[in-house]
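Reader question, answered in our methods column.
A reader sent in the components of a multi-part assembly and asked whether the whole thing could be modeled at once rather than chain by chain. We filled in our standard form and ran it. Here is what they sent:
COMPLEX SIZE: two components
ENTRIES:
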Amino acid sequence: MNDTVPAIELKGISKAFGPVQANKDISIRVMPGTIHGIIGENGAGKSTLMSILYGFYKADAGEIYISGRKTDIPDSQAAISAGIGMVFQHFKLVQNFTVLENVILGAEEGGLLNNSLSKARKVLKQLAEEYELSVDPDALIEDLSVGHQQRVEILKALYRQADILILDEPTGVLTPAEADHLFRILDNLRAEGKTIILITHKLREIMEITDTVSVMRRGEMTATVKTSETSPEELAELMVGRKVLLRVDKKPATPGEKLLEIKDLRHVDDHGVERLKGISLDLRAGEILGIAGVAGNGQSALLEVLGGYADATGSVKLRGQELPLSGPGSDGSARREAGIGHVPEDRHHEGLILDYTAWENAIFGYHRDAQYQKGLLMDHDAIRKDAEGKIERFDVRPANCNLAAKNFSGGNQQKIVLAREIERNPDVLLIGQPTRGVDIGAIEFIHQQIVRLRDEGKAILLVSVELDEIFALSDRIAVMFDGQIMGFRDPAETDQRELGLLMAGVTNTKEASHG
Amino acid sequence: MDKMPAWADAVLVPLISLLLAAFLSALVILAIGENPVDAFKLMVDGALMRSSGWGYTLYYATNFIFTGLAVAVAFHARLFNIGGEGQAVLGGLGAALACLFIPWPHWSLAIIGGAFAAAAFGALWALIPAYLQAKRGSHIVITTIMFNFIAAALLNYVLVNLLKPAGSMEPATANFPEATHLPSFQDMFATADNPLFRGSPANVTFFLALIACVLVWLLIWRTRLGYEIRAQGHSETAARYAGISPVRITIVAMLISGGLAGLMAVNATMGEAERLVINAAEGAGFIGIAVALMGRNHPVGVLMAALLFGFLYQGGAELALWTNIPRELIVVIQALVILFTGALDNMVRMPLEKLFVKRRAA
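And here is the structure of the entire assembly that came back:
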């Protein structure tokens, strides 16, 4: 193997969407047989760059070289024939096809499927042995776990003889154990001489698996360094452009009275699936209870039920007062009146109306309050004044309350939601994925606000799929799996490994971790 | 992102679309051997150069303002009310019953009573599809279309079997009592030396339509209900998160929408025909969709678009009267305007946006 010729070389790639310069004169060399990490905040231009490499976008300027040869990639077909495979964050699989059928989809040979299928079966068996990539070839995609579905995506790329594999945020949906397995697969692929580009925003993964790492910020490549010669702190600084605190400063909690008592909470969604299967937990004043779990194990339903927009059975008591869980008095307004604030998981579809201005959003959910009314009309002056205060105190940038919410960055959108919910001074605050899609700089601020609220004696229910965040903030951790709570842990006495087992539904963690 | 200035979005895009539509219309007129310039002159002359022409243009525009506002209000809650026609038909029935069976002492009271009856009937006709959408998930586009047919059949039955005066051969009610006749623009503005608006149907209802524009603007952008309607229109999940009941908003928005469509009858039935006839809605319910589309669901836009369509209606009638251009071709021209301003909106908008972005970058 020729080690001096890069597997991929990009020279001076630029791409603009209207006035936004998504990629600015980006050059990068990825050596064969290495894992090259690309790290950067949301909107830094990572995905755009990879979309250019995979033929989804055409660069305004710049050249692509594959193994030293200048290559044009006008569409994804060209990328595939150039030996590039892509594993998207959101899988592109046909749910009611088998693994085999998905693998040959688009690569069928001849009019009859039999030949392709038997050939694929052989190749798959071989790949499985070589790379620890075992999946039942006859299983339907819809029956597979997320981790296995991801393997199918990798197999699809390898079946098309990809030498270069691009993975976009591959661990976002995986349990820690599944992520470990993925990294072993990547390790094996590297050992066989494959080239891997790993796009992520998680510093830990970069440090763990990559050989080289490139940092992107605001469309530019700010640095490319050997992973062994850098540190998470340095990478974070390169990403944000200033020093950031990666740890949250907080004093030990001083839990007070029981504010929220939940008993045997059950919820069935619109499709008849039971999302909550008897949740019971207590939440005390002055503590942060972190709910860990892989996305889709009922955390969202729990927030929706407590936030007042999904019906449930069971019992929820706030300060000893029973809250209605369906029918009149169970909607979001009633919950807010009772003193439950809610920073929802999905700020684009729940927490904000993206087309509303910041000031309109700053009262969303509280818009019925008397202080915002003037006779039959709403008191826009009062609302604007109120919003300007919130924007100033939460350092929302740009500090322009007439701007539509969609024109703020993820972090600043989240600050608008947080300001609205926190300044209401709720007794209980529900927070879902507080820092999803939020830049590192804003994460620091958001975490500080959550801890400050706790120190003021509020009860906080935190749902996050980021284990690091759960550990950084929680005073107690509950793990959810399949609509149930698998157990409570003290963050000081547990670790990612034990939580990972609980997240996968293994309750007997002591034995499993010894076994 | 700020792609282009607001004035360009509100004025330039529809203007260019209109010019394109006019150009294509000219080609069509050429193709049947007529002179497009003469035709256009005739339209302008007939619709805008004489006060009686204005009287017709404003009469049609009044209808379109009501039905346009009806579509606009529903659309803010992301409900596509195709049923304006049927709601206007029922509005006519309401106005007719109020005029025929209540002895009004003066037109000023009659217009209030008639407006209430028309709005109530229109609103109730919209309530059924709204309820079905909110509670049963039946798609409002389908149900409102079907309710147009039911409304037409219902009116037919009521006129022929219940309200037709004995011995009349025509499916229409008796003439309304004198006291319910609304003052026309001729009554209001013509003097002995200056016979303005002679013979034209524009009447005091036009001012009611202007008031409706202001009220709708206040409702959508200044009231709590409007805030909630728009929130639901943008994201139903977010609305539920904020404690806004989708059932309530769907029903309330459709009641208002149906009421506005029903109000059209005050103009057409009380103001012009002064009795209820079988085709009282005149297709204005459907034109309202185009008017709302072109007016970007904003009352000012609806007003402008309604005036434009009023002009097209009246100008078209003139064309049919004085040239060999058949009436059907007028429909073609109207369709082209709808096509360009509504359906092909992005065809003009996108290149224009690019142009503005480029100019700013340069």
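What stands out: The radius of gyration of chain B is 21 Å. Chain B has a mean pLDDT of 92.
Send us your own complexes using the same form.
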